[in-house]
Amino acid sequence: MKKRAIVFSIIFICYANAAHAYLDPSTGGMLISAIVGMFATLGLVIKSYWYKLKSLFIKKEKKN
After folding, report:
1. What is the value of pTM for the model shown?
2. 35's torsion region: left (phi>0), alpha (psi -120 to 50) or beta?
3. Per-residue pLDDT tens digits of the chain, which is 64 residues long
4. Backbone phi and psi for residue 29, each to the nearest 5 degrees, phi listed first
5. Which residue ranges make up each domain of the chain?
6. Taking the chain, what is the end-to-end CA distance rounded to the nearest angstrom?
């Protein structure tokens, strides 16, 4: 059954219909800008929560 699903998925992907859409050069620039923006946002989120996540896994030594 799993093999049949994989074969069906490959056939479905290979025989997709054309979109008949016009993509001008600025559309590509917009897509690249959106992707770069997503990676920048992800980086800032990871950076802002890094120390909070790190403190969960590292025990702090108590000073006397």
Report:
1. 0.48
2. alpha
3. 788 888 888 888 887 777 777 777 788 889 899 999 999 999 999 888 888 888 888 877 766 6
4. -65, -40
5. 25-57
6. 64
